Each structure stands twice: as C-alpha cells, then as structure tokens.
Amino acid sequence: MEEPPIGDVFGEMVRDAYAVRTGVGPRPLAGGRLPRPVIEIIERDDGLINGAPADHYLGEPDEWPAHDHRALRLCRGQVLDIGVGAGRTALEVQRRGQAVTGLDTSAGAIEIARRRGLRDTVVATVDAFAARAETRYDTFLLLGNNLGLIESRERAPIFLDALARLANPGARIIAQSTDPYNTKDPVHVSYHQRNRERGRLAGQLRLRLRYRLLATDWFDYLNCSIDELESLVTDSRWRLKEVDDTDFPYFVALLELT
Q1: Which CATH number covers residue 66?
Q2: Weakest mean pLDDT among 18-22, 58-62, 162-166, 195-199
Q3: CB distance 17 to 9 below 8 Å
Q4: In principle, which of 174, 175, 222, 238 could form an S-S bond with 142, CB 3.0–4.6 Å?
Q5: Considering the domain boundaries, does residue 10 fall inside one?
Q6: Tens digit of each residue's pLDDT (9 = 90 or more) over 196-230
Q7: The total number of structural domains that make up the chain
C-alpha cells in the first residue's frame, strides 16, 4: 500500500469539524446528505491506532474539563498560547480582556481560530518564533496535553530555552499533561518498556496523525510524570512551582522563570 501524502492534517480536520459543528462550509458526507463525524486518527510507531472525535478542539468553556478552568485562573499579563489549534482556550483568554497570541504550525487551524474571532495569531514553530519575535510574554499556555510538545529528554532544554528568550522577567508556563503510568493496559505497559530499552523516556510517544487521505510526518510527543517533569527542567531557567493534580492522572504544572 502506498504511503499517504504529507499535509496539514490538523488543519483539514479542524476545518471539517468546524463545518459540522456550525453547519457553515463544506462538510464531509457519509453517503447521502448526513455529515459524518470528524475523527482524529493517531498512529503510534508500534502500530497502535487510536481515534478520537475532533470536535473537542472547538469546545466552549462549558464543555471543558475542570482543570482547564483552574489553569486559566493562573494566567497573567501578555499570553502566548502554544499549540493554539482552533483557539479553544485563547478565545476565552481574549474574552477576559487579556492580550493573547495564538501560535501553531497548522495554517488551517489558525485560519479557523481567526474565523472564530482570535485576533492575534502566528503560524510558526516555537523555535522560529523565538528567533524573530519582538513581543515578550508573561504567560505561556500549554493546555490540552500540550506539555507533550517538549517531545523528549533531548528536546526539552531547547524548547524551554526558546520560551525563556520570549519571556518577560518572572514569566510563567502553565502546562497540562497526563501521567502515562496510571495504566495496566499491556499494550501501553509494553510500549513503556520498549521505550526504556531504547533509552527513551517511557511515556515518550512516536506518532503521526491521519485524516482522510493525508498524514503528518512522524513526530515525538511526551507524556510524563510530575517527577520526570521536575527532572527535565532542572538544568533550564524554569522551576516547577506548583502542581494541580486534583484530576489525576491529568495534571496542570506551573513553572516560573528564575
């Protein structure tokens, strides 16, 4: 079977999910005229396939998990929402009167975020943005499990340094993650062991996304424990100040710039 073409999977998926939710724009159809559900397909490098409804990327505050609401109470000053997607949390920050920039590598997702009303957006990687941005930020948001964007033990210091270069004195990172070790599922337990044998963090994921005819390149995404996070920031300019693990295995970490 041929490999799928590489493209803006997330953008295509979010556009369709937005059309299904709002009834505005072309919608994927499952025979006849009924809109089909938009499913995000996540493929792991051991062959595991997972699917999840993409509509949650468009969720309004009354649809959020409780830890997202608690996380936003920690926001202050100028905010950079990293991995902003369709603008789910950035739009709420903006509604509250705070200055917020939405950053994402998906041009399609940024298009939807802007259509939904997000005023300040950037299509770029964190590294590229840190190299050129003139604005400095007081809060960096990594919600929706986006602590995973630090990727790996090797990548974490580079990512954290880029944020430090974008930061005002006393800046903070508000990051949400999922402890990967709260499972007895043999498929995941064996994957953790496979990672350890390869010298990787056990919760490090090698993934690609699929939607319709497109795929992304393979990329790393990290689920880690609170202890692992504290270890990852030890040699950076960031320190772990507090953790909200009320909804464990989900947790929100607050890091501050030293």
Answers
A1: 3.40.50.150
A2: 18-22
A3: no
A4: 175
A5: no
A6: 999 999 999 999 999 999 999 999 999 999 999 99
A7: 1
